[in-house]
Design brief:
By secondary structure, the protein is of the alpha+beta class. The protein has three domains: 11-125, no CATH class; 127-189, Type Iii Antifreeze Protein Isoform Hplc 12, CATH 3.90.1210.10; 199-249, SH3 type barrels, CATH 2.30.30. Helix content is 14%, strand content 33%. The protein is built from four helices and 14 strands. The chain has helices at 11-18, 47-60, 70-77, 165-168; strands at 30-31, 64-68, 85-87, 91-92, 98-105, 114-132, 147-153, 172-173, 188-189, 199-206, 209-217, 226-231, 237-242, 247-249. The strands form three sheets. Strands 1, 2, 3, 4, 5, 6 and 7 form a seven-stranded antiparallel sheet that branches. It has a five-stranded mixed barrel with strand order 10-11-12-13-14. Strands 8-9 form a two-stranded antiparallel ribbon. Helix 1 packs across helix 3 (70-77).
């Protein structure tokens, strides 16, 4: 059973409604903004938009971005068409983002309607990603105001893109992140539990044997991370796993 998920009808289309009746700009493509829902009150004059959104929802089955020519967006936004026009069926080819749909004009002569215009465009599946709201520097911890969720076309989402705000809060930046860019999991790490230069206790456990020795951390380390430490007694360097703020363990 398909879930009724709203389909993107972005800012380019919404603005087009206000511009209906104005001179047409040069024929360049206008891509909708990365939002997923558009609230339209009954009788507000965008029934053709709603019909298109409903059909694209059925075709794509998820939140999508719709790409239309500006003149087609203005046509669909014209409130004067309400009640006099209706939308035909969206036609698209399998595995192809291109689609077309015919707008019909109601006619007493032809009950099935007279073709008034063919709308052509492209539809793209989108997904949630997390963007940085400002530049994030190495070592910073991510707070609520540092990131936001946006919808991006799937074909433009890089690998390892983060999608959850909750999972990022408190994480530490490992590589610089520029404003308004997608945050990758590889750019983050769990916050350091042991700081470089801090004293730690090295713990070795085997069967009924437990040995501890004083050491110094030679690098920062998060919980579960393996770091290099120096035995304070023998001056020997070891690789140990961070257990807590003052303890590392030998495998």
């Amino acid at each position: 059973m398909k879930r009724p998920i709203s389909i993107l009808l972005g800012a380019a289309m919404a603005a087009a409604g206000a511009a209906a009746g104005s001179a047409a700009p040069p024929p360049k493509r206008a891509t909708a903004a990365p939002e997923c829902q558009m609230s339209v009150a009954p009788g507000s004059g965008r029934s053709l938009y709603l019909a298109l959104r409903s059909q694209i929802d059925g075709v794509v089955g998820a939140c999508a971005e719709i790409d239309l020519l500006p003149e087609d967006a203005r046509f669909l936004a014209d409130e004067r068409l309400d009640g006099e026009h209706f939308l035909g069926l969206v036609v698209n080819r399998p595995y192809d983002s291109n689609f077309s749909v015919t707008v019909f004009r109601r006619s007493a002569v032809r009950p099935s309607g007279e073709p008034a215009r063919v709308i052509r465009g492209r539809m793209f599946r989108t997904q949630d990603v997390v963007l940085a709201t400002r530049k994030l520097s190495i070592g910073e911890r991510i707070g609520p105001g540092d990131v936001r969720v946006a919808r991006v076309r799937v074909d433009r989402v890089p690998g390892q893109a983060s999608a959850s705000l909750e999972e990022l809060h408190g994480m530490q930046v490992k590589w610089p992140v520029q404003p308004n860019t997608v945050i990758l999991n590889s750019q983050l790490q769990s916050p350091s539990m042991v700081e470089k230069g801090a004293p730690v206790t090295v713990l070795y456990e085997a069967s009924n044997l437990s040995v501890t020795m004083p050491a110094q951390a030679l690098e920062n380390g998060a919980r579960g991370q393996v770091i290099e430490v120096r035995n304070e007694v023998t001056n020997r360097r070891l690789r140990a796993r961070v257990r807590d703020q003052s303890t590392v363990t030998l495998n």
